[in-house]
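Narrative summary of target 7.
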Amino acid sequence: MLLIEIMPMKISKVLLFIFISMPMLGLGQFKQQQGNFMDRVYVGGGGGFGGGTDYLNISVSPLIGYKITEQFSAGLITSYQYVKFGDASFSNFGGGPFARYNVTEKFFGYTEYEYLNFAISPQGGSQERRGYTSWFVGIGYTEPISRALSFNVSALYNILHGDGLDSPYSSPLVFRVGFIAGLF
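Modeled conformation, tokenized:
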């Protein structure tokens, strides 16, 4: 609860500290492990599709990560979303850093800081672009499909959601589904 009350500028500094210092925690273990750089890199992402009468939403979110230790990894995720309402269409894009900690073989903790540039079209007005930051924290479940591919489901909470008036998300709670290759 304390994090919600921190001013936005302080939040940025806290996030920067977290994402710089967390990888340092695993450096001692990393130096002791064998393997080259590319053995520790993994890729993945998710996507979405939704639609209805006069509505279409298509999204993709590729990511690249690096296993700092066997349990802890960090990386970058990008996102693109195409939204169409009737005759109006919008392209939204963004991304940011993430960190993942494997608590067990199947369950993980996850955090991600996201900046999203999105378009809105007020009633009767012209299209405007806005920027929005989110800080997602949550848990996930992974199910291996093969030795190098897994299916992930996660439930995340956006602790920066606020009142939602300028938010591209209708709720602070976000569910994600995706695939990861090379994490195991």
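The helical segments are 2-5, 8-25, 27-32.
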